[in-house]
Amino acid sequence: MAKLTLSPELMKSFKPSKAFTGYCQEDKEFTALSFDDTGNTCVTASTDDEIHLFDAKSGKHQKFVRSQKYGVDLPCFTHSTSNIIYAGTKQDNAIKYHSLHDNTYLQYFKGHKAKVNSLEMSPVSDQFLSASSDDTVRLWDLRSPQCYGLLNIEGNSVAAWDPSGLIFAVSLYKESCILLYDTKEFDKAPFMTFMLEDKEHRDRRGRFLRPHPTCIKFSSDGMYMLVGTNSPHHYILNSYTGQIYYRLAGHETFASVNTQRDMLSWSPDGKFIVGGSKNGKIHIWDVPKFEEDKEKHISTLMPIYSTDNHNKAPSKIVAFNPRVVMLATAAASELDFWLPMQDSRRGAQS
User: WD repeats span which residues (predicted)?
Assistant: First the structure.
């Protein structure tokens, strides 16, 4: 798949080029997906306790691994295409470090007492972050089974690295705010706290809307933060000041306290956002050029393109390939690979 310059016209031409069915039981659903660093391989997890690998270039299924004893969620590649980490959903909520090459466990990371909400490798090292419903965020290193950092965070939090790996963000669900930590000084108080407050919208009681964050995504340059919420809007913030620039509208929200880590994705160039919707639609938002000196007025962005492709099943999972122009989406038991129209005519191969 050749690299292309993204434009509104190109983004509007995206169509499913490959639909994968039968890799998840019909009464089960995909829960997460992730690409490796090269963008060549996609890994998925599903509620039937299976891990599947797909070749993003050829559009073919590669292999699957069962994790019936431990369950599986939130798989993500380490910086090796042969190894992943993932959160167990059974027994002790431990995180597994798994070799896909020979189907062996390389390490168990124990400590969480409840469901793991987010799990993310550092973009630059062997460190990784996990946030759990047990009111903790933990920092780990693949080389040690013991966490080296522990934050007591009340609520249904999620965590995410910035692209440099020097900073990570943690959401406070109940307080509707984002905390920023220095990775080297994680044991200190957060160096920044951003309140997620939309002063141009009010709730039924007339109070300013304070949407609850359910996912965090940094732009590729680290300057902006995309915060998904369970309100009618998602938000784009300045990562340094917390100023809200844009609210994303036009989707049917997932009105749930459950985290939706993968419901939104930046394009690699930071110019577009692709997101899912409760009604199964896939939406594309065109993000205007940021004006740092603009007045603190939040602009509303509507999708430039929306499409039905998941038979009204909630499209909870959307991921833009980090290296090439393709998308992956999942809803219920179907996984789709998307390409721009000129490429999709040739199928998934190029």
Answer: 109-144, 264-287
In angstroms, the CA 271 to CA 287 distance is: 5
The dihedral through the CA atoms of 29, 233, 336, 265 has a sign that is negative
CA atoms of 151 and 160, how far apart (whole Å) = 14
**Residue 312 CB: number of other CB atoms within 10 A?**
13
Model confidence at 295, pLDDT cuts 50, 70, 90, reads low
| DSSP state at residue 211 | P
Tokens coding 343: 């490429």
Torsional sign, CA 286, 290, 291, 296: positive
Q: Tell me if 174 sits within 8 A of 211, measured CB to CB.
A: no
Query: CB-based contacts of 229: which residues, under 8 Å, 6+ apart?
Result: 196, 211, 212, 213, 214, 235, 253
**pLDDT tens digits, 162-211:** 999 999 999 998 889 999 999 999 989 999 999 998 877 766 777 777 88
Which residue type sits at 284?
A: I
Q: How far apart are CA 198 and CA 195, in angstroms?
A: 9
Q: Which domains does the chain have, with CATH numbers?
A: 8-26+124-344 (2.130.10.10)
Q: What is the pLDDT of residue 305?
A: 94
Cα within 13 Å of Cα(328), Cβ side? 27
At residue 258, what are phi and psi to the nearest 5 degrees?
-65, 140
Taking the C-alpha atoms of residue 141 and residue 163, their distance in angstroms, rounded to an integer, is: 17
Residue 328: partners with Cβ closer than 8 Å, 6 or more residues away: 33, 35, 42, 56, 317, 318, 319, 321, 335, 336, 337, 338
Q: Give the per-residue SS3 of 92-161.
A: CCCEEEEECCCCEEEEEECCCCCCEEEEEECCCCCEEEEEECCCEEEEEECCEEEEEEEEECCCCCCEEE
CB 284 within 8 A of CB 272: yes
pTM of the model: 0.90
Cβ–Cβ under 8 Å, residues 158 and 171:
yes
